[in-house]
Amino acid sequence: MDEYLASSQYIDWQHPDVLAKARVLSEGLDTPIDIARACFAFVKDEIKHSWDYQLNPVTCRASDVLAHRTGYCYAKSHLLAALLRANGIPAGLCYQRLTSMTPSQYCLHGLNAVYLQEFGWYRVDARGDKPGVNAAFCPPQEQLAYAATAEGEADLPEIWPAPLPVVVDRLTGYETYQAVAENLPDVPLLGLR
User: Terminal CA-to-CA distance of the chain, rounded, Å?
Assistant: First the structure.
């Protein structure tokens, strides 16, 4: 589990501001589930989704997401992982491949998996609610923002300790939320034989 607790370039939980926020969020809470729920609620409800709110700058590093209070789903998942790890709760990154804003094209959607002793790995989606999107923290039941149900869509099964390079490339390679939206990351699905 060490890699799911580590501080890194983009999940920089040892940054003083991230560490301080993690401590505030866990204050007075006794169980990992309660702490994870508080961290999830903060990122989901207090950090604005860059596209929904049409906000710059584009963020990638957890500390930048916290400082600017905005990020795409991927960046928000980096902050949630950082807050959980700062509280000693293993957390990783997960992805779904979904239909993008342009029909017949696809993009990744970023979310998290948190390790809860009672349930094992549990996926949560702190993207932020909007009409038609209502994610929740209610283990052991998953309530994600999106379901991968259309042809070409998929829930990718991996739990990554660090962001995928294609995600980092998009978040660090473009300066505006609009430019990121026009170049959302994607990965090909491997066919089954």
Answer: 32
- Beta strand 154-155 with 91-99 is antiparallel
The token pair that represents 2 in the structure block: 């060490």
Report pLDDT digits (tens) over 120-145.
999 999 999 999 999 999 999 999 99
| Token pair in block for residue 111 | 């979310």
Model confidence pLDDT, tens digit, residues 60-72 = 999 999 999 999 9
Which is nearest to 8 in space by CA: 70, 86, 69?
86
> How many CB atoms lie under 10 A from the CB of residue 78?
35
Instruction: Report whether 129 contacts 146 (CB < 8 A).
Output: no
**Distance of alpha carbon 54 from alpha carbon 182, whole angstroms:** 13
Residue of 73, 71, 91, 64 lying closest to 6 (CA atoms) = 91
What are the respective helix, strand and coil percentages of the chain, to the nearest 5? 35, 20, 45
Residues 6+ apart with CB under 8 A from 65: 47, 59, 71, 75, 76, 78, 79
Instruction: Report which of 171, 191, 189, 166 is spatially closest to residue 181, judged by C-alpha positions.
Output: 171
